[in-house]
Amino acid sequence: MTTAADIAGSVRSGQCSAVDVATAHLDRIDQLDRSLHCFLSVDRSGALGEAELVDRAVAAGRDPGPLAGVPVALKDNLCTRGTPTTCASRILDGWVPPYDATVVELLRRAGAVVVGKTNMDEFAMGSSTEHSAFGPTCNPHDPSRVPGGSSGGSAAAVASGMAALALGSDTGGSIRQPAALCGVVGLKPTYGMVSRYGLVAFASSLDQIGPFATSVADAALMLEVIAGHDPRDSTSIPSSPAAVLARLSDGVQGVRVGVVDELVEGASAEVVSAVSSAAEALAKAGASVESTRIPACRLGLSAYYLLAPAEASSNLARYDGVRYGLRVDGPDVEAMNVATRTAGFGDEVKRRIMLGTFALSSGYYDAYYGQAQKARTVVLDAFAAAYERFDLLLGATAPTTAFPLGDRTADPMSMYLSDVFTIPSNLAGHPAVSVPWTTGGDGLPVAVQLLGPALAEPLVLRAASVVEASAPGVPPPCGDFLPSDGTRSALPRQAVGSGSDGLPREGPA
Ligand code: GLN
Question: Which of 102, 274, 333, 369 is the most exposed place for a label (fewest CB within 10 A)?
């Protein structure tokens, strides 16, 4: 399989041109995205222009950087100067940011080529990408299933080889859960490790940007490029991040791993069995593995669904018809505000704004928002106690494999439950990674999740590498998403097509 590291290696050494790599990926998007709908916008000429600059640098003997010529997709809540950033919402219709997010600047500086902006649940609220105002994304392993969410477009774009790497945001699981459902690696870094300047805010005390990749090493490579202090983000950690790649193959000899009951219970049988097999693999590699309980994890979901909507109701107050995007006129300013927000926001966003406004309202603040803050502290303390006994924790990422499109949209609670295992690390601000393990009986990816204390990315990813190496693995998506040699994508190759009806044909490669 061609990785981002392979692409960068070939481009840096002049073996392969960045323009050819970009063209191959853009062609693949042209062919496949009609069926999968991973992208909200594709900037063909922009991408080819960036790729040409990379090639020129190589020709002039300059090193374009560690991601030279690597095609990257960006979740559409990351600001990109001069190209639309919609957050999959009608309310941002026509808004074009006047600046790039810090992560976008860093990626370009490292030689990456941005191919487009990916689909997502509106304002990152959801777990299936079905709450996009522009229609859902399909799971490349089975187009009748969801890719997970909210960063479903990014996960599916990487899984189907339309981009070698992608960025998403994770407030309650929105990188890890879609990564699990699409069979790719997804990492939520420590809160503050990656600058959020230019990330459209959902719940500011939880939001974090992180990578999607087809391997742990590629996720580590991308993390090294995007991590670091940024004076433009007041929550950015002042110290420089530890090197991750250099120690990636150091193994887990002597590392203490706790398998957390609460991060597995209620999951389907195949998910439970993946977690035990991953635990065995870590033990075989020399880790001391023990099962443990962290009952406070059970508070996570309820606390999150008060705190995240409360913060969202405040963050989304800025979409008033005056400053950004859509305006629906009315006889006075208030009527214009109401008409704009009524037309511009989808149902799930409205539900969150109402929940959050209620939780913060006078008379209810202590009972709801205040209680949830206390529960968050209980979760933090419980993790702190666990990390006195363990270096890392292991659990499931998602309770089930990818569910059918439409299955959970009518029942918000069942949708919210998709993130029951991912939310605790957001509340704690800790890093966690989803690693593909195998495919379940339905042929869909099953993943496990590794969690560590703040700034433990080097160890978390080392253990993820061990898990990846021992995993039976997830075969790339069905036949027509791949070239016939089974590689996932990347270097220039013959174009592959979808069925004559424009829909992906199912079946093994
Ligand atoms: N699914 C969760 C929610 O709807 C998490 C979303 C996210 O991480 N952005 O809030």
Answer: 333
